Amino acid sequence: MIALLAASSTTAQTGADFSDDVFWVWLVKAVAILVFLLVSVLIAIWFERKVVARMQVRPGPNVHGPFGLLQSLADAMKLLFKEDMTVKAADKLVYVAAPMIAVFCSLLVFAVIPFGPAVWIGGHHTPLQLTDFPVAVLYILACASVGVYGIVLGGWSSNSTYPLLGSVRSTAQVISYELSMGLSLVTVFILAGSMSTSEIVSSQKTLWWFIPLLPAFVIYVVSMIGETNRLPFDLPEAEGELVGGYTTEYSSMKFAWFFLAEYINMLNVSAVATTLFLGGWRAPWPISTINDGMFNHGWWPILWFLAKLWFFMFVFVWVRGTLLRFRYDQFMKFGWKVLIPFALGWLVIVAAVQGLRQFSDLNVRTTLFVLAGVVAVVAIAAFFVPEKKVAATKPRRGPEVIDPFAAGYPVPPMPGQTLPPSPRKERAAAAAGATAGSDPTTPEVHGG
């Protein structure tokens, strides 16, 4: 894999040049990113309510400000002035630090996201990006992983059952879905020849990576929804099961930190998808061909970046308004038995094709035909294996009968389990049989 990246890096474009930056330029960029994220969260809350309301044929926010635009600001003020309560049995230091860890880690990701090409700011020619380095995407994954500690520590420090269950679920969820997400991103590294975000955008000058890497793109989109704890994967905060999950014992601004971190993480994964798969700040075809690519220069690219970013935000809302929450065992099975194997298989195919392109004289078209034939044979073998022979090798067993009151309180049956026959039904059936047997009008049946 390292050899593939090294060989591909010779064709990668030059990354962003920060040599002309001075201290005040860095400061302006950092403040602009912070303001952008905070304002975007307010817009995202209003946007989500409006879109879901339109899907459910109702008006949504329409009182505070024109079109209800000030509703998010009113909600922020409510959280700011709400009574702040602290659980007496909680670990005070960790209890307060947990939401701060979550939100601070979420604010770090946009430091390496390119908003556009180099522009002139105060006489300095600087990229519309705070910073970049050769392993920028690994930095993004690291920030996302450390941010989960805020959720885990928040649930654990509350010293309460439901928050603890929510934090444990979050740990398993991140481990499961970050694996598939990372595997899908590796295919981009192989084709782009770099893990620098600016170089990945430069490598998509002629072709956006979501076209040749469509399976990886689909896997990433599914994984990013699971990574951000959004429906149908919001198991750590499932209000139908865990009251509020890891946020149950939080109120006022400490709860607002968690709320803010969730929406910023939605923006983060959307920006990563835009940068790695949809060409970043580059204009879509055929706009990119107008006047020798004039819309890919200056300040125009910010418009294309924001349009792609909010497309993914719409996908988040669309999925929330459409799908129901997964059961936890279904959720884990989908991550480990579907996403990860498919992502790993696609990674092997992409690595094989790229390796043949770099280290052999084989025609790419011939290679693709051979790989398509192999995939077709595997698919046919998987779908047309006789089910009777497979079933005959394993003895068929009926569902396990359990005692629902064995632990002292009723427990519903899990898949593959069943409840014993109801004593009331058995008594009713016996009484009905006795009544039918003693009825003189019942005809006697003789066997022949």
TrEMBL record:
The chain crosses the membrane at residues 22-47, 93-116, 136-156, 177-195, 207-226, 255-278, 298-318, 338-356, 368-386. Keywords: Cell membrane, Membrane, NAD, Oxidoreductase, Quinone, Translocase, Transmembrane, Transmembrane helix, Ubiquinone. It is found in: Cell membrane; Membrane. It is a multi-pass membrane protein. Its EC number is 7.1.1.-. GO terms for molecular function: NADH dehydrogenase (quinone) (non-electrogenic) activity. Residues 407-448 are annotated as: Disordered. It catalyses: a quinone + NADH + 5 H(+)(in) = a quinol + NAD(+) + 4 H(+)(out). Residues 410-422 have a biased composition (Pro residues). Belongs to the complex I subunit 1 family. NDH-1 shuttles electrons from NADH, via FMN and iron-sulfur (Fe-S) centers, to quinones in the respiratory chain. The immediate electron acceptor for the enzyme in this species is believed to be ubiquinone. Couples the redox reaction to proton translocation (for every two electrons transferred, four hydrogen ions are translocated across the cytoplasmic membrane), and thus conserves the redox energy in a proton gradient. This subunit may bind ubiquinone. NDH-1 is composed of 14 different subunits. Subunits NuoA, H, J, K, L, M, N constitute the membrane sector of the complex. PANTHER family: NADH DEHYDROGENASE SUBUNIT 1, NADH-UBIQUINONE OXIDOREDUCTASE CHAIN 1. This is NADH-quinone oxidoreductase subunit H. It comes from Cellulomonas alba.
